[in-house]
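Good morning C.,

I know you're traveling, so I'll keep this short. The sequence:
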Amino acid sequence: MLKGIENHRQSLLEINRKIRSLSTEEKYADNVKLLMSVPGIGLTTAMTFLTEIETIERFENSDFFAGYVGLVPTRHGSGEVIKTGEMTFRGQTTLKKSIVESAWIAVRIDPALSLVYNKLVKRMEPNKAIIRIARKLLNRIFYVLKNKKKYVTGIVK
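The tokens, ready to paste straight into the viewer:
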């Protein structure tokens, strides 16, 4: 059992080394720095996003980006009646999980996201509120990558 744990630890170290070396390549280096300026986004999450989406230019706006990731509600419609439901099961599972985990960290770091989260928790479950924060975080990622500007933490009055 101990040998198995040691093997897992060694393979994890090897994977982290490869991720670090990949992040320094010219193709990813600038975008990794931009993404890591967003609260809750670390090196592994940044590289996951950059390798999965390839280029942000393929998305027309943040709604298309959110649809690709899968952070949009399901919609069922017939005629004039449209019902929206829970988060869709479609999308990139890896990206969806990464952004939700990053949102939990971001609400502790970013005052603006923390303020919104605290308001949402008053009227809904924390797990549902964090999905909305994840969508806001995804919008920030889209803005940072599209405009090539670092994220600035602050509260809009």
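Safe travels,
E.
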